[in-house]
Amino acid sequence: MSLAFLPDIKTESTTASGLPVFYKNKTDTHAKVIDGFTPRDYLTHWLSQWVRDYGIDGFRVDTVKHVELPAWQQLKTEASAALREWKKANPDKALDDKPFWMTGEAWGHGVMQSDYYRHGFDAMINFDYQEQAAKAVDCLAQMDTTWQQMAEKLQDFNVLSYLSSHDTRLFREGGDKAAELLLLAPGAVQIFYGDESSRPFGPTGSDPLQGTRSDMNWQDVSGKSAASVAHWQKISQFRARHPAIGEGKQTTLSLKQGYGFVREHGDDKVLVIWAGQQ
């Protein structure tokens, strides 16, 4: 399937294709003809070779709906085997013994276990979370239902939630509370560069979303945004120390004032209290 008039590699083809002409004439790619290989076979072989050579432990895949599901499963299978080989050959370099992982982006995907999970993906990007969080910038308790539902559903699968995105907008409401809204969320989370330092929206040109990809405001990290960066770091470190934040089951507390919950996962248990507006 073609995307935005870009070249379409026929990954659905079951016919052996040989190498593309530009690879035949560009020997420094080291690409070789492999008997019987289809376009999909070549792509998965080349991508898996990166894993085998460099120990890459996962792929974040863009616009997954434009490639058929069996192709993603083939990539996951081959890349997983390649990572096992690399770790066996490089035990002193391997960071852990975890398997190869894949996270996918499919526009509009939320917290649901779609067919992508049955075809190689370990997590999908959660497009719902940005606007859910926006409704809770004045009161963290407004996230309770969302967090309860996520914590319950994500016992069986995972999603990757975000506040800001190059495809939607920069999340700049809530001040420091943005860190809490993201980093206390169940499941996996991603910090878009500059969320921690309030990176400003940049020039757009012909693309109205180009401003979301503005230059990093490095000068503010140790300058006017230093306190905000420190806040993000503190909560990030808390999350890293406590797997229950992302993986645990949630119990909401009944409080006379403020909002609180407990999350538990295995031997890890955390208590989070929001005292209200100061």
TrEMBL record:
InterPro entries membership: GH, GH13_cat_dom
Keyword Hydrolase: yes
EC number: 3.2.1.1
GO terms, molecular function: alpha-amylase activity
Keyword hit for Hydrolase: yes
CDD domains: AmyAc_family (cd00551)
Keyword terms of this UniProt record: Glycosidase, Hydrolase
GO biological process terms, semicolon-separated: carbohydrate metabolic process
Domain Glycosyl hydrolase family 13 catalytic: 6-239
Superkingdom of the organism of origin: Bacteria
Pfam name, any one: Alpha-amylase
Protein name per Swiss-Prot or TrEMBL: Alpha-amylase
Native source species: Escherichia coli
Species classification: Bacteria, Pseudomonadati, Pseudomonadota, Gammaproteobacteria, Enterobacterales
